[in-house]
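Final report, section 2: Outcomes. Of the targets proposed, Serine phosphatase RsbU, regulator of sigma subunit is the one most frequently requested by collaborating groups, and we therefore present its record in full.
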Amino acid sequence: MQMSQRPEDPIGQVEASSNVGRLAATIDRLRKEIQDAQLAAEGRALIELARGILVERLHCGPTQAAQQLAALAEQAGLSQLELAADIINQTAQDRLSDAARDFLAQAGADARAAEAPSVAVRLRIAESGVLYAADSQMVAESLLEHALAPLGATAVAVWAAGPDASLTLAGYAGFSAEEARRWRYVPPGVATPARRALVERRTVWFTSLSEQGLPSIGQRQLPGGGRVTVPAGTGGRILGVLEIAWPHPLQPQPPQIHKQVDALAELCAHTLEAPADRRTAASDMAELIDLVDALPDPALVLSPQLDDGGRLTDFRIHHSNGRFADPAGRPRGSVTGTLLLEAYPLAAGDSGLMEKIEHVHATGEPFRAEGMTLTALADQVPLTTLADISLTRHGNCILLIWRVQDEVVRLASLLQHAQRLGRIGGFEENTQTGEITWNSQLYELYGLTPADRPIPLEHLRERAHPDDATTIGRFLRTVLHHRHPGATAFRLQRDDGIIRHIRVVAEPVFDADGRMAAIRGAYQDISAQHWTEVALAATRDQLALSEQQVNERNRLTLQLQHAIMPPTRGPLEAFGLHIAVRYRPAEKEHLVGGDWYDTFILPSKQILLSVGDIAGHGIQAATGMVILRNALRGLAATGAGPAQLLTWLNLVAHHLTESVTATAVCGLYDPTTRILRWARAGHLPPILIRQNRATELPTIDGIMLGAFSEADYSEEQIQLEQGDTLLMYTDGLIERRDHTLQHSQAELLLIAEHPAANLDHRLDHLLTHCNSDTDDDTCLIGVQLQ
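The predicted structure is given below as tokens.
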């Protein structure tokens, strides 16, 4: 009894799977055999080509050439295929030869024997595959398999450039069929890596496609991979673009790889060139000439001129139409048939015309420009002409059309441009026929269309604001009755509700008999000027008020400061001390600061000496100075030492003022012991002059007042000797923008050592020769023990 197997039978599933596997293996084997056969055929083609070269060079038969090739290969230790590629390279001397030779020159000693011959073989096999390919699809597959896969590339696209600079996918390999369908056509103007190579006419390397932000085929498949796009063309004309993709970011490649890629692009150019493009069809040229002869503007048909190497060197003037007028005055016959740079050598100069023609010929991208400068030589004298230029490619030729801008056209264009910028509309009224002519700008000012009837000048009051009726009446009497030129300004009320401020000027025109024939004039929209003047007037008034308030505030600040610390003060003599002070306010009132000084005798018969500097300028600094100065006086009456006084003064600055910070030096002199006790809060230390030598007192710790709520200050003391002079000052005495503070302090010590007849002379000398440049307040106290 035979049992039927169900689909879920495990044995049946195993057998089915085995059959599928065998079928897949058979397909892979057959595909491999086809590829091997194709590779062998391409290899045999290279060997047969090398044998043909030997037949021609050695003047021998095919059999002898085959024997000679085998013998040479054995002697060189190479395969016949590798030797054949080498023979072809030496004979061809083309880009593929250069690429293989460059790789050989750049490779190391080990690579020369191994990799270099394989490079030559795979480049020549790729060439063979391209030349015998039936279409561009086979070209892309051959390039990827034989030449690009060894470089690590996984996909390639061959783009054909259209006459309008569009791109069509002619062949691809490594990309999916769905992706190829999505990218079968790229319209003109779409930015892609291939378009960059086309427009810039150079090879463009992209480290990573995603970093560039340019869309291209396979961007979802290979988002972070590298790309290179190479223009492929011949004779100066780009026929397409070769785009190669890598799966990983692309590092900078050596020069030999660059040459290989350029050589492969040249192979693609020969396959992209259609048979019809390889020759100039007589019918197409005849149609182009007929088109040019029908044009109303001067035009030239330019055909590319190539050298022996196929490189573009110039363009020949193939045809000129009947409208053609040579700028140098030469007849058409002397220009037609000549090379462009021979007829117009300055086309390669400042105008850049030759460069534009080359770009249009290479890319197919049309070029148009207005007011381009064309320069021709007439008996070696340059003649300049302004013209509107149009360049388009038709087949392999360039159509150059230009329209010369004569002086009348240029002046009319300039006038129209000036009227548009100045928002000026012109008019003319014929007083005999009543005909009124407006330009387009005047229609726009009135908010009308050219289909509307112009408004006569005598009806101007109907369109104006009622309050301007009197002004307009005087204007109309001046022009229409007294027949004199006139001008006025009024508010125009348009039909759309917009009100414009308009200035109108008009003058009568008389005929030969003295009769008024017409009125000509212009309207100008001065709305922006009007409102600008209104805004400026308001701003000017506001600035004047603000300036007045600032000046009054600065004056009050200066009066407050001078009331407390006058610029000059008589000397103080007490207990053998001679004390002199100097205060120099800022020259500019708005820079009035908060520097202060104070010297007075305490109830304990000690003498308080202090200087300080409030941060900032203006009324806040001045009032802060008053608070701290008076607070120090009151605190000093307690009999506390300098360090304790600064500790209390810091509390006052931090808690009892509005964010006031300051530096200060406080000293107490005891006449009985001649000892000066002193402390500092972020201030410059005093200077002691003893026996004509000036030194700074040691710097002791002490943070500026008001910076922190709690601060401790150190205290030092010095015993004065007879003849000693002590100086206490603020930084306005020495501060300079171009010197460090340390440098300025060193200069101050040298100036302080200058001999002086008395203390007052010494202080005056310091104020004169300390060249500070910050225009800050300056306080200076001098104490001399007699």
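The longest helix spans residues 10-58.
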